[in-house]
Design goal:
single chain; alpha/beta; Glutaredoxin; Serine Threonine Protein Phosphatase 5, Tetratricopeptide repeat; 5 strands; 9% strand; protein-disulfide reductase activity; TPR-like_helical_dom_sf
């Protein structure tokens, strides 16, 4: 596998592994617990030949427990193209202090004895893959991850398959609460709002109130608040603010977000005072449902800002 310097695009040292015969590589050679006795050898000296992914974690850290199985899975998949070095900062506080660790999980990519990049927090597997692929060529013919399979199923309208995949992920990773949120989303896509709400309500408070869970709850609430298609037909001949608002709400509930956002913005322009500024408040809820990084959220936040200021 080729390893590149992202700053110059030039290839770096190639690991001393034979990717054509991966079964010969013992996982214990590339998934290693780090302490004061082997930090120099594994992380600093070892990274001169093979990249090292240094996972700084703590026993009391729930996100660390969610992240570590993902990193171990990737290490096995990459089969020696990088070394996963796991550092328990509680047991080795001196090393953690020298590294400047302030919060965990903290993952650092060390190559040729230098820090090349890092991330903090338990990122989704897909995002970690994308981050890692900037530096190390992914192995060929890797099957889609369960998360990717579930997402593809949802995009294809097969919510039942997505739900089944997420149920297995939740069973296998009971402390990975993002999977439970994903399961709630798939259950909601199947049309079972009651079960989706139950899943969300049973999350720990810090996960129940996180952006991802709020987004699923917002979609759930839009479905409950939106007029039925029969009611919408009755409003067809009307063009007052109430009818326009309900049409936009139905579009959002049906997943036609762009049309719904356009309708809400138009209502703000024509009747800002309707139902105590309901159009603006609903726009913000749609942003919450989509997520801060969604292209529609970014685009329509700009439009909202321009309209307001």
């Amino acid at each position: 596998m080729q390893i590149v310097d992202p700053r110059s695009g030039e290839p770096l040292a190639t690991p001393d592994t034979d990717s054509s015969n991966p079964s010969d590589i013992d996982p214990s050679n590339y998934i290693v617990d780090i302490d004061t006795s082997n930090f120099q050898q594994v992380v600093l000296e070892g990274s001169m030949n093979t990249p090292v992914l240094l996972d700084c974690w703590a026993p009391w850290c729930e996100p660390c427990k969610n992240l570590m199985p993902v990193l171990e899975k990737l290490a096995r998949e990459y089969n020696g193209a990088f070394v996963l070095a796991k550092l328990n900062i509680e047991e080795h506080q001196q090393i953690a202090a020298q590294l400047g660790i302030r919060s965990v999980p903290d993952v650092k990519l060390i190559m040729q004895g230098q820090l090349f990049d890092q991330f903090q927090g338990a990122l989704p597997e897909k995002q970690i893959r994308e981050w890692l692929s900037q530096y190390i060529q992914p192995p060929a013919n890797v099957p889609e991850s369960p998360e990717e399979q579930a997402q593809a199923a949802l995009e294809a309208g097969d919510a039942t398959t997505a739900r089944s995949i997420y149920q297995q992920l939740v069973q296998d990773n009971p402390q990975h609460y993002d999977y439970q949120v994903d399961l709630a989303n798939a259950v909601l896509a199947e049309g079972n709002a009651s079960d989706a709400r139950t899943i969300l309500d049973n999350l720990p408070p810090e996960h129940r109130d996180a952006p991802k869970a709020r987004g699923v709850r917002a979609r759930l609430e839009f479905g409950e608040e939106a007029p039925s298609h029969e009611e919408l037909t009755a409003l067809k001949s009307r063009d007052d603010s109430e009818a326009r608002f309900k049409r936009a709400l139905r579009q959002v509930a049906d997943g036609d977000y762009e049309a719904g956002l356009d309708g809400l913005l138009a209502l703000m322009k024509s009747d800002r005072s309707y139902d105590d500024d309901a159009a603006r408040k609903t726009l913000l809820r749609v942003f919450d449902a989509l997520g801060a990084d969604h292209p529609l959220t970014v685009a329509y936040r700009r439009k909202l800002f321009a309209l307001l200021y």
